[in-house]
Design brief:
With 456 residues, this protein is of the alpha+beta class. The protein has ten helices and eleven strands. The protein has three domains: 147 residues, Beta-Lactamase (2-Layer Sandwich); 85 residues, Signal transduction histidine kinase, dimerisation/phosphotransfer (DHp) domain (Helix Hairpins), CATH 1.10.287.130; 149 residues, 2-Layer Sandwich (Heat Shock Protein 90), CATH 3.30.565.10. α1 packs antiparallel against α2 and α1 runs antiparallel to α5. The protein is elongated.
Length: 456
């Protein structure tokens, strides 16, 4: 069974249950009210009967009698009974005469009033104390409201229930059809999207501001991420193939040229140096790609330990000094807190050393070894490292591509590099639940801000 029909049936069953419950409740409380109201009518008649028959003053008695005859309708089977109370035996005889339980008379005598239902006949009695003695006045009648009006109400329910059920069923199917119309539209649109037309998106109208609209927006956002991933993957494969094929082509070409004829010892040595340089380049690219793939896999667990951000920064500077003695890295410790524990982070020392080394070496390289300022600070929740250089900068329109592997800005042609360092650094920082932000303008340098959550 389709979900559309399931929802329609569930909605119909719920609506029908509410209608049935409401109908039964109305009938039940109407029936209960009819008993209470009818007993009140009988009690009023019993009081008027007592006043009209047992009142000492004739004028008052006549007035009560006239009131009853003119203003109170005659009930079906209405009868009045007057019993003078002399003793308990008198109550028993009166009960036998009326063919009702003696407890009915005893309750009237003790409490002052009582009611009784015997078959279709209703009794209401009162205890009346007059000048001529103590009397029990009982009025009996048949409840036409219960037998006729409730029957009419029951017939209305019997006729209305099938009609309301059909109406509820129709509304249920219209309701489910309207909901699944949009779902079907979404399904049809999704079927048209494939890897060849990832640019397509689900259409959203101004009326789709409910949960369905949120679903469409979420799905479109997912398609945006998938399209970006596809483009990144295609660019990665294309660039990786080019970067790997270049040194391989150079090695193969140099080997073929060298082997094409006999060479001198010096020529063989020069050829081997060329092959070695290209092989080392190929080795660097391959290791960088493997490292990039490993750090991009969230399921890979790294060994974490408690580290001091300032010590990590100084160790990285020592590495940069060995790699590039001409660098002018300047570490600013003015904002470092007095309590060294506030600079503690959880991380893998080797990975963090590699990430910071990539960022610092880029700052030195692309600023042609001009001064690079490195600041260390802390907030209530983070450890912040800010690296600012005064180099060539990055064009603003190219900033969104800087994390794509092998991407290099258009103004970096005169600098050696592979475009892997920054994506690798961002993956490492993400592994440590940190963030990496880059801002830049051409010829005004680059500012890199790295944040790590403080360890407690």
């Amino acid at each position: 069974m389709k979900s559309q029909f399931k929802i329609a049936l569930i909605f119909f069953a719920g609506t029908l249950s509410i209608i049935l419950l409401l109908s039964i409740s109305v009938y039940y409380f109407s029936s209960r009210y009819s008993f209470t109201d009818f007993y009140k009518r009988l009690e009023v008649r019993a009081v008027l009967a007592a006043k009209s028959q047992l009142e000492s003053e004739e004028e008052k008695a006549s007035a009560f009698k006239e009131m009853r005859e003119k203003h109170l309708e005659k009930l079906t089977g209405e009868r009045d009974y007057f019993f003078k109370i002399n003793s308990k035996s008198n109550l028993i005889n009166s009960a036998k005469q009326l063919e009702v339980p003696v407890q009915f008379f005893e309750e009237i005598a003790n409490r002052g009033n009582a009611t009784l239902k015997k078959g279709d006949l209703f009794f209401s009695g009162i205890n009346y104390k007059g000048l001529k003695g103590n009397y029990i006045i009982i009025v009996s009648a048949t409840n036409d409201y219960d037998t006729q009006h409730l029957l009419h109400l029951r017939n209305i329910f019997i006729i209305a229930l099938p009609l309301t059920s059909l109406l509820a069923l129709a509304i249920s199917f219209l309701f489910s059809k309207r909901i699944f119309k949009l779902i079907k539209k979404i399904t049809d649109n999704v079927k048209e999207i494939s890897s060849e037309n990832m640019h397509l998106r689900l259409e959203k109208t101004p009326a789709d501001n409910d949960e369905m609209g949120e679903l469409i927006t979420t799905f479109n956002n997912m398609l945006d991420r998938l399209e970006t991933s596809f483009e990144t993957q295609n660019n990665f494969i294309s660039n990786a193939s080019h970067e790997l094929s270049t040194p391989l082509t150079a090695i193969i070409g140099e080997a073929e040229v060298t082997l094409s004829k006999d060479r001198t010892s010096k020529e063989y040595t020069e050829a081997l140096h060329i092959v070695l340089n290209e092989a080392e380049r190929l080795d660097k690219i391959t290791k960088s790609l493997l490292f990039l793939a490993q750090t991009g896999f969230d399921g890979k667990k790294q060994k974490m330990e408690l580290l001091r951000a300032d010590e990590l920064l100084w160790d990285t500077k020592k590495t940069i000094d060995k790699m590039n003695p001409a660098n002018q890295l300047q570490i600013d410790m003015n904002m470092v807190p007095e309590n060294p524990e506030k600079m503690s982070i959880n991380g893998n020392a080797q990975l963090l050393h590699l990430a910071l080394a990539n960022i610092l070496s880029n700052a030195c390289k692309y600023s042609s070894n001009k001064p690079v300022k490195v600041s260390l600070a802390t907030t209530d929740s983070d450890v912040v490292i800010i690296v600012k250089d005064s180099g060539i900068g990055i064009p603003e329109e190219e900033l969104k591509y800087i994390y794509d592997p092998f991407f290099r800005a258009s103004n970096t042609r005169n600098f050696e590099g592979y475009g892997i360092g920054l994506p690798l650094s961002r993956n490492i920082i993400r592994l440590h639940k940190g963030s990496l932000e880059v801002s830049s303008t051409v010829n005004n340098g680059v500012t890199v801000q790295v944040r790590f959550p403080r360890s407690n």
